[in-house]
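Re: flavin-adenine dinucleotide structure - here you go.
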Amino acid sequence: MRALVSSPEAAVLAREMGLEALGLAWTDEEARRLAGHVGRVYLVRSGSMADALVRLYRDEGFAVAVLPGTREARDAAAYAAQLLGAAFIPDAVNVAMAGDKFRVERLVLGNKAVAVYEAQPPLLLTLGPGSRSVGEGSAGGEVREISVGEDKRVRPLSVEEKPKGAVRLEDAEIIVSVGRGFKRKEDLQLAFHLAEVLGAQVGCSRPIAADLKWLPEEHWVGLSGKKVSPRLYLAVGISGQAQHIAGILNSKYIAAINSDPNAPIFQYVDFGIVDDLYKVLPLLAQRLSERRRGA
Ligand SMILES: Cc1cc2nc3c(=O)[nH]c(=O)nc-3n(C[C@H](O)[C@H](O)[C@H](O)COP(=O)(O)OP(=O)(O)OC[C@H]3O[C@@H](n4cnc5c(N)ncnc54)[C@H](O)[C@@H]3O)c2cc1C
């Protein structure tokens, strides 16, 4: 049986399941990385992701397609699954073969529970949080360019870069995130100041953006906000409810400042400070900027 994979992580997963892996890429760099892990990569030069999945299923056949956990991949996989009459499972955190079927685990109920599914091929799935990272491979696979039909019903009219300084939490290396522990909107300056010292972006919990409207929605992190994967995520005055945690599990390190030692956030942190944020933030910003200046 074959797997269609769009990342080196997915290629390793396919190998572990004893499947032959074919690669699917959209950029030269993706194709180059994938070719290190599979025998053949299809590099899509034009056309939609859904059309590419359908075409490759019909031309090559695959038992499972393992796609990244992006919104675009989820939409495309769901659409392609409809066209192919295939099964679709989003946000998979574990996949294994069980005879001639697949056994898939995904996090549900805001990551509080694991649901286990059995699915027959063909199956399309997207990967959820916590996927492993895989280095360069040496398979030396062949790269074949393909073009699939454009979707004439939808066409981009223009693509404009976001203005400089706009919030790009998805790309941030460090995020200082604020929650309801802040008493007034003006107090968020404490977090913005620390973020400036650290070269970080500022994120927030849902109440800050959705209820209090102290920050625009582009700062909102979590299940219904942005999923982020920084090197360091510092949650300040955030309790750590499951819906917030769902957005930060791909962070390399999680740290928190919270005055309540029993706050759920402390179950997820690598480092934690139990204290008043109004005391800790100015001190931290001062110490770190002194360090930067070599004082
Ligand atoms: C369908 C659904 C989707 C949701 N999606 C999201 C989402 O995407 N993102 C999200 O964030 N939430 C989401 N929520 C809301 C979520 O359940 C929580 O209500 C929310 O995350 C809580 O935000 P918070 O931690 O800022 O506030 P709180 O839960 O009120 O926590 C405030 C924390 O600040 C601490 N604190 C108070 N004063 C201080 C101080 N002086 N110094 C230090 N610490 C202090 C407190 O101990 C407390 O732990 C969703 C909810 C639902 C139902």
